[in-house]
Amino acid sequence: MTMWRGLDAVVADVGSTQRRRSVVTVGVFDGVHRGHQVIVSQVVRRARAIQVPAVAITFDPHPLAVLRPDAQPALLTSIDRRAELLQEVGIDHVVVLPFTDELSRWSPEQFVGEIIVNGLHASEVVVGSDFRFGHQAAGDVALLTELGESLGFGVEGVGLVGDGRQRWSSTAVRKALVEGDVAAAAAILSRPHRLDGLVVTGDQRGGDLGFHTANVQAPAIMATPSDGVYAGRLSALDDEGATGTSYVAAISVGVNTTFSGTQRRIEAHCLDQTELDLYGKSVGVEFVERLRDMATFDSADELIAQVGKDIEQTRAAVTI
Fold first, then answer.
1. 41 close to 81: Cβ distance less than 8 angstroms
2. Average pLDDT estimate for 254-265
3. Where do the domains of the chain lie, and which CATH numbers do they carry?
């Protein structure tokens, strides 16, 4: 898979005169959840049928970070993780467009002309039925279809999907995470929610208590489950953010009040790993099952006993 950051990168890689066609989809795709996957699967089917690349256009930062900063949602995926997930469901190339105030002012016609036609030479465009684009979201699927008829590409709007109880959406995933319901989040995502971050030095108290932990510092904008203890996994990430070796992990999110802590932290204990050195490395923390609320213990011995129980529950709940 190729990830292009901006249209200039597309031209530099593909060539300004090579008019290779493509099947294109456009969206934020935060989380690449099951609703997104339905759209992407149709993009991939059409691309394979006419033997051209399947291309996804996404944006960085989230459009609301520019249009309404006060309403910017917590992100489910970083750009690197989003691209990796899109590749997993069949996308050949991801175009990351910097979402700027200037881009937000483009008319629907300019967006289609500059990006869909001149930039990616689309044969077909597949989007969700609620897709909006251009200045003040003036464009919709009907206008996109009209533009396609005049500019030489087909358009398909894919209906909204869900499980009969709710629509699959990034908003629904965020709501589940706020409630600590990581199983509900996973049901919409089709996989456990993962939070990527850097392992930094913590209080280094875990080793003294008999269980080393990785103190994971994630960007503040990323969506974090509510405070509690979870069973999950920790995955090592390479320099490009690709997923490497995974370990079963017991994970705590919140403030360690037993030792008068005041800082909210994400700490992961990798089971059966005594020589693992993760300091300064990027990792992904996956939340599989909520085990319990955070609690204050009267002594270190009580905490150690409870952590032992958490580890055994994690071992039963998670497999690699």
1. no
2. 71
3. 2-158 (3.40.50.620), 192-317 (2.40.30.30)
